[in-house]
Structures are given as C-alpha cells and as structure tokens.
Specification:
- This protein has about 130 residues and is mainly β.
- The chain has one domain.
- Helices cover about 0% and strands about 50% of the residues.
- The protein is built from no helices and 11 strands.
- The strands form 3 sheets. Strands 3, 4, 5, 6, 7 and 11 form a 6-stranded antiparallel beta sheet that branches. Strands 8-9-10 form a 3-stranded antiparallel beta sheet, with no helix packed on it.
- A hairpin with a 7-residue loop joins strand 4 and strand 5 (about 70-75).
Length: about 130
C-alpha cells in the first residue's frame, strides 16, 4: 500500500482469517463520508488503494466460489458518490496499487505469484441497489 500523507478515511473492523491458518483476512469496512449498502456487508480484505488525485478508492471484497479463492474490486468514485464492481478475479490479492488507467495487482493463485494490471474500464458494473 502506498504511504499517504493524509490519513485515509478507511477503517477495517472484525478482521479474522478467511480460513484457519490463512495469512489473508476478511472483515467489515467503513469509509468516512461514503455510505452505500455494499459497504455494510462483510468479507472485505484489508487492502485498499487511492488514485493519485484521491478521487477514487479501490477496495477488495472476497468472492469465493466452489471452494476456489477469488475476489472482486469495488471502485468508489468519491466525488460522484458512486460505486462500481469488477468481475471476479481468481486467487488472493497480495498487493494493490491504483495507477492512472489501472489497478496493479500481485495475486497469489495456486502456489504462484502473478502480476496483473486490471484496467479501470473493466470495473464498470454500477451498483445502485441494495445487495440483500
């Protein structure tokens, strides 16, 4: 995670291992000044990244399926108060940096570390409804 001069308004709570013995955590997230039903659910990983202008924030939410680890990215447009979701990405997020035009990820998948840049245009599912 990049060092930020200003304290980020992101707070994680109730964090615990996603599986016994796992180095990856899951829990709840709170983003000051941003209220959305998707943020009230659990299963967020303790990873986040801001774009250089601090207009967008990207969070990682666990999305395991069929006992295969996976996650998706939630991009919060802090200026317009909108939230967008990526497709599911298989593996576990090790590190994440938000650069102009993309999210640079280091993913642990089946014993290997994979470097991948996920284009911001792929985080395009606008979430407007209550997920429950």
């Amino acid at each position: 995670m990049p060092n930020l001069k200003n304290k980020a308004p992101v707070k994680f709570s109730g964090m615990g291992e996603i599986r016994m013995g796992s180095p990856y955590n899951g829990g709840k997230v709170r983003v000051e000044g941003f209220d959305h039903p998707y943020l009230k659910q659990g299963d967020f990983q303790d990873r986040y990244a801001y774009d250089p202008a601090k207009q967008r924030l990207v969070l990682v939410r666990w999305d395991p399926g069929y006992n295969i680890p996976g996650f998706y990215l939630l991009m919060l447009d802090l200026k317009k108060q909108r939230i967008y979701r990526s497709p599911t990405i298989f593996g576990c997020c090790q590190t994440m940096i938000l650069e102009e035009g993309g999210v640079v990820l280091e993913i642990f998948d089946r014993g290997k570390i994979i470097d991948k840049t996920f284009k911001l245009a792929m985080i395009n599912q606008h979430l407007t409804h209550d997920p429950c």
